């Protein structure tokens, strides 16, 4: 590249060189580099000595990829040092590639291959470091020969094909060979737990932003079951998933899958179990239609996101080259083993060699692909940003003009458009486009919308007229652009048709109008509903089922994205996966941005509540399972919130002695619905915070405070995270009044002080509350100590007459203050014969009998306590069955009313048998018959 640098770039580079290297002779290549790349300027500003590497001919000829941790003992490298080594390695070698590309006119095929090799070294090094760190405490999973089994890391996408772009994120899938317990550590754990810890450490080591930056953004969504799946799976579990549930797009993705790092004895086994899924034994033309649909979805996304001048996703972009080559690989690869490669360039060569693509066409396709990859590389080197959009600012346009040897940006655009047009022609020859069927909405629905007249429908719904007129009136005042009105005019007839098909009421129409009113000025959401008929259908269906869902979506329109894929919408996260999923979700959130973290917690809750509600409203989950899911979701959010609060407190004050991120010395006790696995959609959380430190110990930070103060501040920070109202509302209403001394007590109390209070000062109602309590967060020794305390308190011998009197008095007090029923309407919760009576009966049975039968304290939920009470002879079996049946029926009714926001009262006549049974049981158990 011998042409003159544009003046602006030359001046910028010269100024930067003078600032960094005033004592050095002027070097035009370094000036060029500094003028062309903000990233290179930042690198040399932080490590000016790297200039010596750039000016070494030997270094520039080498394609070395040393292990980042070469010369280190992995188990001795702590997190801070490990993260720094990885990030400085990336900075050094990415600077080298920038210099090769911008100043040495390096072959782009060599550059992307080198970047991929360097990425392999970073990922493999991070994997081995993470393994060593976890093994230090827990020992190692070993095979039958006693060899440690490293976690396998499958690189996907361009990483898998050794074609990584300069600022790419990385898509990974983790696996392990066999499910065995660890050996040689302080405590043995299951393989799944061990490798999950390794995976979490690996992800954090690459993904986390530190003072030294970030190595890679890590995306785990391509793993089995996507975001709701476990972080890592065994070979057997992976094989079962792809054989039974693998989808067509996963075949396409897995085509690029490549194991990172040195080949092991398990590498071939892993590839063999994936091969039947990716490559069919027959010539498979069904893949063409699948890829065509995928491309149409991408095209819709391009339109929705207004992606213009995008050299990856636009027509004729990089993605279309990938589709052409990979489509032909998947069609023929099962029978032609030479096509079974992750490399696009190698596959293209093989397709040409076997005359699947003519030699001239293959050469042209390769040339055009490499040209677009070169443009992409330049765009990303400018500022180390993952972008494929052509620049709209003058400086970067000048940079691109220079690198492509063009005099102005119009010529640059013309050259790029010519290449993309050529690629698109080839794409249409191989893939083609399905002609989208014309489906004009019936004229009656169009006329109804245009004329605001429901009577024009074939079967008019009179209660639709008012909501339609109200929506039109609101629309007349709304700020909506021409594009938005155009989309709305196409969308509304489709909505009317969908409402008609679902036989929706006027109330449902009003609910959906509320949703539309919230998004009326946000054209992207209107387009989402128009471009995705399935999403519109789900919106109507769910609003028909539940008023709560409709209002939930209208408050948080971002949830409309969740309606696109019914397979995800109606499949809540597995109960055991919520904590893992929230951690994975937070890998994408800046750990320094509290506001963003608070929004992320709320959006995670809202998204998953919607999925649970969708499964609930359509009968996929019964009421007990719904509460299990809502409880597991709440626990996961508490866990993540504690992690956030802990990091903030640790940064300010250091941490108490003998604690770390996993052993915080802090516990959260859940009471009430949370303790009893009965969380509802709008439940608050009754929590008590405890710790295991005394007042004399101090934190280890520069601004040291007592451990007691630390935990008080930690609890206050949690209250702030939960109760602060942001744009997405509050997280949960946290109620901590059940703590010792109630509202006047300490927000966080030593667990032994909690014990002393329960033993010497607590009222009977506080012991009743303890029946429905459990520790939902805390290290093992805290959990065990709490269980001991709970057992001791609940198993105390009590004066039965006093106990009865206290329980009856408290129940009557609650009923007189809270019951809302009357002669015809029954308050499911507070009326005599209702849920609260059953809860008080259960608590009384535990407090009366646990001294004799300690098994009664095993569970904290009413159904299992009643089951144990009958098994142990405290009540008879028919009574147990009647109470449980009534309790489940009451909860189901209460649940349905909650989803439709109808209060908690129902007709007494409908539940007369249950009411009678519970009332009679109350009188018999408490001796009130006479």
Based on the model shown, name its key terms:
five-stranded mixed β-sheet; 930 residues; mainly alpha
Could you characterize what this model shows?
With about 950 residues, this protein is mainly α. Strands 2, 3, 5, 6 and 7 form a five-stranded mixed beta sheet that branches. Strands 8, 9, 10, 11 and 12 form a five-stranded mixed beta sheet that branches. Strands 1-4 form a two-stranded antiparallel ribbon. Helix 31 (about 705-725) links the parallel strand 9 and strand 10. The longest helix has about 30 residues, at about 110-140. It is globular and about 100 Å long. Residues about 280-285 and about 435-440 have low confidence and may be disordered.
Q: Which helices and strands, and how do they pair?
A:
Layout: H1 7-20, H2 28-36, H3 38-46, H4 51-54, H5 57-61, H6 79-103, H7 108-138, E1 139-141, E2 152-155, H8 157-160, E3 170-176, E4 182-184, H9 191-207, E5 218-219, E6 232-234, H10 235-244, H11 248-254, E7 258-259, H12 267-278, H13 286-304, H14 318-332, H15 344-353, H16 359-383, H17 394-403, H18 409-430, H19 443-451, H20 465-477, H21 482-501, H22 506-519, H23 523-531, H24 533-545, H25 547-555, H26 566-569, H27 578-586, H28 594-617, H29 623-653, E8 666-671, H30 672-675, E9 685-691, H31 707-723, E10 734-735, E11 748-750, H32 751-760, H33 764-771, E12 774-777, H34 780-794, H35 800-818, E13 825-827, H36 835-849, H37 862-871, H38 877-899, E14 905-907, H39 912-925
Parallel strand pairs: 3-5, 3-6, 9-10, 9-11
Antiparallel strand pairs: 1-4, 2-3, 2-7, 8-9, 8-12, 13-14
Helix pairs in contact: 1-2, 2-6, 6-7, 7-9, 10-12, 13-14, 14-15, 14-18, 15-16, 16-17, 16-18, 19-21, 20-22, 21-23, 21-24, 22-25, 23-24, 24-25, 27-29, 28-29, 29-31, 32-34, 33-36, 35-36, 36-37, 37-38, 38-39
């Amino acid at each position: 590249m011998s042409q003159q640098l544009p003046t602006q770039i030359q001046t910028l580079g010269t100024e930067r060189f003078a600032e960094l290297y005033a004592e050095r002779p002027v070097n035009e290549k370094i000036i060029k580099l500094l003028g062309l790349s903000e990233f290179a300027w930042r690198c040399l500003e932080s490590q000016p000595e790297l200039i010596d590497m750039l000016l070494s001919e030997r270094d520039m000829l080498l394609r070395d990829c040393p292990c980042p941790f070469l010369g280190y003992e992995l188990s001795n490298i702590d997190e801070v040092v490990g993260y720094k080594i990885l990030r400085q390695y990336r900075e050094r070698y990415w600077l080298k590639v920038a210099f090769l590309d911008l100043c040495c006119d390096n072959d782009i095929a060599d550059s992307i291959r080198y970047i991929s090799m360097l990425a392999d070294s970073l990922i493999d090094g991070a994997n081995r470091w993470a393994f060593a760190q976890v093994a230090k405490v827990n020992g190692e999973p070993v095979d039958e020969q006693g060899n440690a089994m490293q976690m396998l890391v499958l690189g996907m996408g361009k990483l898998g094909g050794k074609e990584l772009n300069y600022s790419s994120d990385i898509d990974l899938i983790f696996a392990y060979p066999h499910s065995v317990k660890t050996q040689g550590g302080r405590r043995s754990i299951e393989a799944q737990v061990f490798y999950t810890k390794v995976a979490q450490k690996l992800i954090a080591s690459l993904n986390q932003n530190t003072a030294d930056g970030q190595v890679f953004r890590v995306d785990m969504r391509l793993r089995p079951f996507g975001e709701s799946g476990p972080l890592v799976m065994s070979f057997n579990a992976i094989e079962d998933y792809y054989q039974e549930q693998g989808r067509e797009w996963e075949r396409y993705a897995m085509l690029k899958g490549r194991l990172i790092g040195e080949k092991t004895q398990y590498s071939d086994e892993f590839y063999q179990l994936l091969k039947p899924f990716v490559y069919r034994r027959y010539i498979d033309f069904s893949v063409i239609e699948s890829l065509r649909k995928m491309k149409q979805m991408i095209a819709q996304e391009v339109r929705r996101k207004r992606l213009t001048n995008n050299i990856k996703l636009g027509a004729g972009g990089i993605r279309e080259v990938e589709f052409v080559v990979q489509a032909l690989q998947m069609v023929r690869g099962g029978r032609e083993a030479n096509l079974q490669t992750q490399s696009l360039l190698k596959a293209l060569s093989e397709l040409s060699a076997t005359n699947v693509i003519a030699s001239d066409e293959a050469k042209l396709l390769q040339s055009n692909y490499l040209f677009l990859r070169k443009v992409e590389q330049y765009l990303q080197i400018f500022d180390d940003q993952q972008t494929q959009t052509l620049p709209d600012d003058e400086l970067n346009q000048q940079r691109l003009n220079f690198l492509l040897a063009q005099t102005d940006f119009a010529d640059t655009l013309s050259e790029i458009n010519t290449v993309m047009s050529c690629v698109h022609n080839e794409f249409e020859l191989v893939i083609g486009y399905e002609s989208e069927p014309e489906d004009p909405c019936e004229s009656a629905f169009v006329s109804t919308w245009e004329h605001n007249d429901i009577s024009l429908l074939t079967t008019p719904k009179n209660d639709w007229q008012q909501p339609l007129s109200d929506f039109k009136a609101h629309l007349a005042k709304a700020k909506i652009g021409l594009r938005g009105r155009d989309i709305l005019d196409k969308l509304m007839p489709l909505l009317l048709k969908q409402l008609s098909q679902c036989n929706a009421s006027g109330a449902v129409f009003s609910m959906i109008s509320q949703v539309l009113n919230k998004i009326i000025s946000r054209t992207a959401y209107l387009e989402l509903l128009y471009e995705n008929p399935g999403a519109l259908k789900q919106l109507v269906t769910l609003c028909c089922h539940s008023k709560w869902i409709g209002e939930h979506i209208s408050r948080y329109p971002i949830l409309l994205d969740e309606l696109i894929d019914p397979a995800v919408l109606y499949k809540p996260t597995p109960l055991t996966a919520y904590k893992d999923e929230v951690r994975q979700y937070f890998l994408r959130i800046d750990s320094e941005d509290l506001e963003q973290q608070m929004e992320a917690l709320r959006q995670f809750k809202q998204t998953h509540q919607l999925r649970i509600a969708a499964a609930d409203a359509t009968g996929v989950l019964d009421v007990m399972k719904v509460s299990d899911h809502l409880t597991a979701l709440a626990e996961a959010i508490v866990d993540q919130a504690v992690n956030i609060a802990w990091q903030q407190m640790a940064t300010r004050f250091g941490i108490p002695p003998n604690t770390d991120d996993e052993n915080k010395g802090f516990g959260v006790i859940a009471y009430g619905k949370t303790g009893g696995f009965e969380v509802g959609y709008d439940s608050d959380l009754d929590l008590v915070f405890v710790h295991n430190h005394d007042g004399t110990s101090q934190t280890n930070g520069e601004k040291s405070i007592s451990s007691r103060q630390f935990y008080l501040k930690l609890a206050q920070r949690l209250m702030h995270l939960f109760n602060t109202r942001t744009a997405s509302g509050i997280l949960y209403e946290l109620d901590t009044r059940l703590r010792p001394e109630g509202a006047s007590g300490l927000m966080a109390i030593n667990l032994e002080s909690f014990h002393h209070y329960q033993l010497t000062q607590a009222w009977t109602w506080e012991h009743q509350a303890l029946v429905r309590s459990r520790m939902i967060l805390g290290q093992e020794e805290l959990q065990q100590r709490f269980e001991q305390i709970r057992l001791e308190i609940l198993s105390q011998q009590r004066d039965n007459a006093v106990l009865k009197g206290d329980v009856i008095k408290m129940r009557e007090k609650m009923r007189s203050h809270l019951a809302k029923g009357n002669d015809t309407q029954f308050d499911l919760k507070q009326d005599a014969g209702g849920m609260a009576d059953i809860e008080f009966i259960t608590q009384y049975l535990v407090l009366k009998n646990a001294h004799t039968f300690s098994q009664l304290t095993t569970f904290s939920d009413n159904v299992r306590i009643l089951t144990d009470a009958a098994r142990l002879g405290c009540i008879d079996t028919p009574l147990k069955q009647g109470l449980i049946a009534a309790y489940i029926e009451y909860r189901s009714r209460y649940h349905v009313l909650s989803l439709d926001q109808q209060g908690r009262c129902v007709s007494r006549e409908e539940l007369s048998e249950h009411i009678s049974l519970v009332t009679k049981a109350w009188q018999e158990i408490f001796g009130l018959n006479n």
